[in-house]
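Retro notes, structure queue

What went well: the backlog is down to a handful. What didn't: a couple of records were mislabeled last round, so from now on we paste the full input next to the output in the thread. Example, using HAD-like protein from Westerdykella ornata:
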Amino acid sequence: MPPRPLRPRRFAPLDPEKRIEGDGRPELKGIVFDVDGTLCECPQNYMFAEMRAALGIPKSTDILDHIYSLPEPAQSRAHETIRQIERTAMAAQKPQSGLVALMSYLDSRNIKKAICTRNFDMPVAHLLTTFLPGSKFEPIVTREFRPPKPDPAGILHIAKSWMHEDGGNGLIMVGDSIDDMTAGWRAGAATVLLVNDANRHLAEHQHTDLVVTKLDELIEILENGFEGRVEADEEKVDAKVLVEEAIEEKS
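Corresponding output:
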């Protein structure tokens, strides 16, 4: 696990004219995006409820953790069960507000883009070819990459691919769930929450650095220089995190 960077996370403006000589803020190396609920609108509540009903598990049980705990051939059957639900939902995919504008802007600034999702590859490919043809995302980390979010492994893999570094200090993770915020935070990346009515409680979570209501709000933020929030009491946050990580390592 890479060391956590100090908060608040900051990056220099992408607009060269707004950079100041001697500005110590690092340059942004790239942005990692979640898919469902982030790049596309997603009927997540009913989709995940359908998955749990089909698998016979309660809301408190992580879907992928449950599937990976099954022996074969039950594991393969369970994977196909949720893939079929995702294929059905894929037909109703809609681009998130501000999606095309943000991606066009990032491409104009030559900012690398990657995907880290718990979905499988078919809905991801459908989204990109339908709404973002010609916009490059690489690497694309799907659920086949293990362990999945909230583990930071996928984001660290992307950082290694881009920068040949062991941490995500030069990156931003954009998502809509606690898994996204926690994975990004643990990887050392800055985190941006795309807020909605269902996840509004995460706006004040210690793993969330910045909140936007639409994707294209990031354009002005990045042009002028990214700056995450200041922790109210860094020592208390650090103590709490150490306890959480110790519990996690023992579990």
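Agreed that this is the format going forward. Reviewer comment attached to the example: The chain has two domains: 16-41+94-250, 44-90.
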